[in-house]
Amino acid sequence: MSTKSRNYFLDNYKAFLILLVVIGHFIEPCYTNTLFLTVLKWFIFSFHMPAFIFISGYFSKKDMGLEKLIQKLVIPYFVFELLYYFLYVFVIHKETGLYFNRPKFSLWYLMALFFWRIATPYVKKIPGNLFIAITGGLLIGFTQLGNFFSIPRTLFFYPFFLAGYYFQESWFESIRRHWKAFTVGLASLAGLLGGWVLITGQELTPFIFYGRYSYEDMGLTNGWGLLIRLVCYGISFLAIFALCAFIPRKQHFYSILGVRTMPIYLFHGLVYSILKDSRILEKVDFPVETGLLLGFCVLLTFALATELPYKFTTWISSFPVRLPKSFSRSKKTAV
Q1: Domain assignment present for 4
Q2: The CA-based dihedral angle spanning residues 124, 130, 131, 135, taken in that order and rounded to the nearest 10 degrees
Q3: What is the band of 332 on the pLDDT scale with cuts at 50, 70, 90?
Q4: DSSP string for 185-243
Q5: How far is CA 262 from CA 100, 189, 227, in A?
Q6: Which domain does 232 fall in, by range?
Q7: How many domains does the chain have?
Q8: 322 pLDDT tier (thresholds 50, 70, 90)
Q9: What phi and psi values does residue 333 have, to the nearest 5 degrees?
Q10: Is the pLDDT of residue 316 over 90?
Q11: Strand partners, 334
């Protein structure tokens, strides 16, 4: 792939992932109602955020200063925290507080991305940093930090960001040529996890891929929780690479979704919160209802990629930020 032209492969990959983000959230209240939705939930959460974060890391090689990071990530975070607060309190009457250290809904990603971009220039200087990042993601499962500053998710998903940061464009071609090996490895690990469930009778949910919950929260001992999380890392990485063979490389009508992931990501949660409060989503059961829900998710994804949501998110992430010299960094951070 030429670096002189737009990489439509990654646009298409991001388009696929952002659609899965929307679907994954909207089937949350009803995924246990049918086998199809249960399998779909497992499929989506086994790799969609790891892949999304991997690609974010890949696009984070360009230098960006602290002021620009605040402009692009921190300001949108505060704006949408306020929007969620007003929606919860005045529209759906959900009890909540106006706090900024516990991200609402999917806003944890903005907070985590800010921390990843700040930390990576320093982390990359440490020998064996990817191994250390994976170790941190495993060990955080021992704690009960909850959603505080999204620390558990930030540490759990950081290996995917760091791997994407190191990844080179030419490697995608090599991965495509060996997609069968990645698929076999993926099937083997998934079979290993499924076999463990059958043998032990241990109940597992897609929460094992969320990164938010401790091993205790998921009903696992620390030892088993650590091993299962390690298997989850393997499944997610293998799925990211195996899917490379199936993502189109040319521009298509849906490629725009991969260019405008931010408004889709930020706005879909507001719609979801309203529908969830109405309890209509948890009633989805029959095939026709499932089809209508999935069709709605597709239409919503395209609707949120239109000009108005895109211009709004562009506008709030374009406010000029000027830090006092005492707070300015002498070097730019690599993002």
Answers
A1: no
A2: 100
A3: very low
A4: HHHHHHHHHHHHHHHH-----GGGGTS-S-TTTTT--HHHHHHHHHHHHHHHHHHHHHG
A5: 20, 32, 34
A6: 20-61+68-320
A7: 1
A8: confident
A9: -90, 145
A10: yes
A11: 63
